Amino acid sequence: MNTNPQADFGVIIPAAGFGSRMGAQQPKQFLSLAGMPILVHTLRVFLDHPLLSVLVVVLPPDQLQFGQDVLRPYLSSEKLLFTTGGPTRQDSVYNGLQTLPATVARLLVHDGARPLVSAAIIDRCLAGIEQHGAVIAAVPVKDTLKEVADNLISRTIDRAQLWQAQTPQGMQRELLEQAYKQASSFCGTDEASLLQHAGIPVAVVMGSEENIKITRPADLRIAAGLLRQKEEIMRIGQGFDAHRLVAGRKLILGGVELPYHLGLAGHSDADVLTHALMDALLGALGEGDIGRHFPDTDEQYLGADSLKLLELVMDLVKARKMRIINADITLICQQPKLAPHIPAMQTNLNAVCGAEQINIKATTTERMGYTGRGEGISAQAVVLLRTIC
Ligand code: MG
Questions:
Q1: pLDDT (tens digit, 9 = 90+) per residue, 77-98?
Q2: Is the pTM of this model over 0.70?
Q3: What residues does the ion ligand 1 have nearby, CB within 5 Å?
Q4: What is the full DSSP assignment across 141-200?
Q5: Which domains, and CATH codes, for the chain?
């Protein structure tokens, strides 16, 4: 059994139902929500998750080509696979299970028509799988429940122990395979009931009131309202810095000390690369510049390790619930040769920033200008930040 909480996971999205309660002429997962098919919203949440290894979408047999044609303009990922479903959800998930590569040891099953699932719910399910083997996302029942016969209330049900099942429903793969072997003629409405039928305990983790399933036309309007609130924000920032090369100083770029007879002058360690990145981040946040946050008149920053200052800037990024999508940094330097040291610089910056992609490149200025004459080194950076949904 896989016990690594950082391990990859696979996802099966059963989207083979027609959704007759929507009263539409096409399967509900292809109806438009905020300008995109419902299913695209759902798939994007999983495709954006850093631990996803593969995602299998199960479509109606007669809609396989149509579905792929509808989704392709929005999504291109090698992680995305398609297969066709059967008459019941249980059949469809089974087909999805057969399509998952054998290397996938833990998986989530999620309704195609629940587009408001979040990374936080996915993470709770993954942690729950590690702890319990099988879990579902669920929320406690809020409303008082009545049992009704012939339009008359026959009893009020104690809701204290009642939860509403949602998806994702997650499990170690071997447990679901075992449940299918033992299912025989049993047909459950969700994976939890199939697992329970096989005597496998299933735990609950907190889902979300917003993780609604789009079943009726009103749900589409509610989901559109919730999506507008969550609309992601992107912020771009650029930074520039230059420091003079002098004798008797270390040359530190991206936290890497380079062998050279000159180093950069400055109040801190004068890591011009890291400073340009910090200024780009502060710019994207609308938080002024390095000078405002770490003034060179402040003794506590004398000789400071700029990677430590970058950590403080990243704290501001995280406090805004944002993360770096990518950063691109150019070092402008005639001497020494920087290329051999760039991978180590990238490793240092990635360790602090956790960015999907930090690109560092170096150029000379063909011996023109102050960098060309070897009087100093400068750096330019651009970053793109995005809100964490
Ligand atoms: Mg500087």
A1: 889 999 999 889 999 999 999 9
A2: no
A3: 241, 275
A4: --S-EEEEETTEEEEEEP-TT-EEEEEEEEEEHHHHHHHHHHHTT---SSHHHHHHHTT-
A5: 9-231 (3.90.550.10), 234-387 (3.30.1330.50)
